[in-house]
Amino acid sequence: MRGTVRKISIPRRLVADLMHASIRVPFVSLARPLNIRNLIEARAQLQQPPGWAAIFVKAFALVAKSEPSLRTLYVKWPTARFYELPRSVAMVTIARVEDGQHCVLLQKVTAPDETPLTEVDAVLQHAKDAPIDQVPAFRKMLLATRLPLPVRRLLWWIGLNWGRQRANYFGSFGMTSVAAFGPGELHALSPGPFVLSYGVVKPDQTIDVVLRWDHRITDAALIAKVLTRLELVLNTEISAELRANRPQTEPKPVRSVAI
Question: What pTM, to 2 d.p., does this model score?
Fold first, then answer.
């Protein structure tokens, strides 16, 4: 059967490189519904609430702040070893349409646990709406993706296996979701070590969350505790920050009465 030969676009080539780098990572996943009633109530009080991606990015980083395993990378140079980072770096998947084609690009958010939620959301909104050449992370990725295949493979290998550079280029955890397009449980691939995805909020005020991780770094028992801790952080620290950002009702003016 005759078909049509189409050139692979640069954004699709980036995804192909990402999948090649992810193929040998021994991922395991754990899915669980989280009850986020307090978070939903706090978010509903805002006229322009931050997006769910920003909320989960900051919440996971807050959990990782007290759990070093969530900031640990598996690297192979000069020998196989673990490399613990002092802070979290998120790589968030941004869905876009460029030149009529759907594609995904990655936006880096450094130390989201130390950043106001409004600023985290602003970074992600800029990555979603701004032209590609105005988003530095996108510009660098696509520039590297234009290089010949052998050069790209070498750059990816160096970036993934040199601990100091890995966080700069690939982060300590990934964040992705298809909730904006409807319900579904997403088990994404990544070079690792952690990938968090979330679904849509259900009528019973729960949200399905999937956490995939490199089994070389930790085991399921810790991940189960992490999801429990994530639920708590969403309903306490994140909810408290949202409530603190809600507009205050101005007091009614007091009319003076002459005596």
Answer: 0.91
